[in-house]
What we know:
By secondary structure, the protein is an alpha/beta fold. The protein folds into two domains: 79-163 and 260-297, Periplasmic binding protein-like II (D-Maltodextrin-Binding Protein, domain 2, 3-Layer(aba) Sandwich), CATH 3.40.190; 166-257, D-Maltodextrin-Binding Protein, domain 2. The chain has helices at residues 2-16, 18-27, 32-44, 47-54, 57-64, 104-116, 127-133, 149-152, 194-200, 213-221, 232-241, 270-285, 288-297, and strands at residues 80-85, 88-89, 93-95, 101-102, 119-124, 140-141, 155-157, 162-164, 166-171, 186-190, 206-210, 227-231, 246-250, 259-261, 264-266. The strands form five sheets. A five-stranded mixed β-sheet has the order 11-10-12-9-13, with helices on both faces. A three-stranded parallel β-sheet has the order 5-1-6, sandwiched between helices. A three-stranded antiparallel β-sheet has the order 2-3-4, covered by helices on one side. Helix 1 (2-16) crosses helix 3, helix 3 (32-44) runs antiparallel to helix 4 (47-54) and helix 6 packs across helix 12. The chain starts with a helix and ends in a 5-residue tail after the last helix. The chain binds glutamine. Glutamine (GLN) binds at residues 86, 89, 127, 143-146, 190, 193-194, 231.
Amino acid sequence: MKKFLAAMMAAMLCMGLLTAxxxxxxxxxxxxxxxxxxxxTANEAEPADxxxxxxEPEAAEEAAQPEAETAASEALAxxxxxxxxxxxxxxxxxxxxxxxPDGFDIALIKAIGEKLGVEVQVENMEFNALVASIGGKxxxxxxxxxVTDERKEMVDFxxxxxxxxxxxxxxxxxxxxxxxxxxxxxxxxxxxxTGDFIAEEIAGAEVAQYNKALDxxxxxxxxxxxxxxxxxxxxxxxxxRFQDQVTAVDGAQFDFEPEEYAIAIPKGDxxxxxxxxxxxxxxxxxxxxxALVKEYIExxxx
Length: 302
Ligand code: GLN
């Protein structure tokens, strides 16, 4: 409540100083506590200057909606965590025999939902649509999604839970063996993935984008592509499905950098990030996480 009053005061000071507010707010990133302390000082001494330094538009909004000051995630308010995935990425997500999304990520997010006391509803959608749907159609996304600076402009990420790297799937008789060999080649990728971003940087490459990595692998097997660039674990699964025809090669051999998977969450929802990270940590500490790795990831490429 004190914070609420402080916010009100800041808002009132703000209203009296119409022009001073906006620009000052952009430069400062004070917490509510800071605003409170400084707003009190301001009241005693020089309201005008203090307001210039501390007032934020957010403070005014909070004054209008006091419930925003509780540290609860809006995404969880309805008791449902709506999770987007793209169930074309074994062993992290795939459609099981009963037609439902399953896999490591799905089991992981369901276990997290249980810890958070919310029901998890999984939406299967195109990978390339996930990031833009967060905070709208879906609350969060789990999809073997690599943390990248570009995605961080639109969403926040949980702590990372898996380290991967892109692999290169080649026909058995291929002579491609190093980064320079990829130049000018016909490369299949899944649209909007880090494999796609890497391929687009390769000089002269003809990049064919697919909605499903499996379709790219089929085209590779049919001789329409020179290689497919896709994440390590799906690459190993595809290698085992087409073992007479293809080989999956570690991208380190092509100078590809390691990547970290994390859960994508709405930008600024730190309450949700904290709760998801705490649940992840508990699962890593108590062995539940490793049990899921054993169940879903180890042996998935046999
Ligand atoms: N890790 C890759 C990325 O984030 C691919 C993820 C996927 O296809 N599900 O872009």
